[in-house]
Amino acid sequence: MSKIAVWCRHKEDNIIGIGPNIPWHVSSDFKRFQRLTKHKALLVGQTTYESFPNRTLPNRKIYILTFEQDYQVSDPDNHFVIPLETVKDINEELYISGGASIYKLMMEKLMPDFIVDSVYMGDLQEGLTGNPVSITPSVTIMEQAYEKISDAFLLDNVETTIWAKKGGTLDETTLAHLKNAIYNY
Ligand SMILES: NC(=O)c1ccc[n+]([C@@H]2O[C@H](COP(=O)([O-])OP(=O)(O)OC[C@H]3O[C@@H](n4cnc5c(N)ncnc54)[C@H](OP(=O)(O)O)[C@@H]3O)[C@@H](O)[C@H]2O)c1
Asked: What is the CATH number of domain 3-183?
């Protein structure tokens, strides 16, 4: 089953967060993420999981990576802490949804089949506290080991392109879902 990385990064510096927050508010980007992942399984790190309102996203299964022993999830029927070694054995379409440490791990170890690469062209929100979180190492791997398989789609200052692993086998059903979620907004 396909593995898909989904991110929205700031142009040039590849920042995806400041502290726990995403430093822009683009409603259509959030809605695209919702369309991409509704009724799907997500993989996130603990920081990203805790940034979701009430630590949940309805209608999704969520796999969480954490080093915290006995970590308590908010919805034990749908949220599961898993060890890193078992991610490769997840036998369902999996949306790798951040943050930076999880993208880096997965780009290095798993190499997802697809990347939905959204690039925000606007200015970062000012006044947020915390360190900038960048995904430049993941973008470097993408640029070397992946190729663009769609035109760039521009909406509300966010440009979205689908990339696929060079030499990989494309699952046409997954690709159709990605295109549908991106183009039919
Ligand atoms: N723009 C976007 O598309 C987007 C998407 C998602 C997130 N974000 C942003 O990204 C930022 C968070 O990124 P982040 O890198 O700081 O945090 P993160 O990747 O969400 O989570 C980091 C945590 O994951 C756990 N973890 C990492 N590697 C692990 C491993 N090998 N095994 C088990 N657990 C592991 C650790 O938990 P412990 O605490 O136990 O060490 C670590 O603290 C936030 O600003 C968020 O808003 C942006």
From this structure: 3.40.430.10
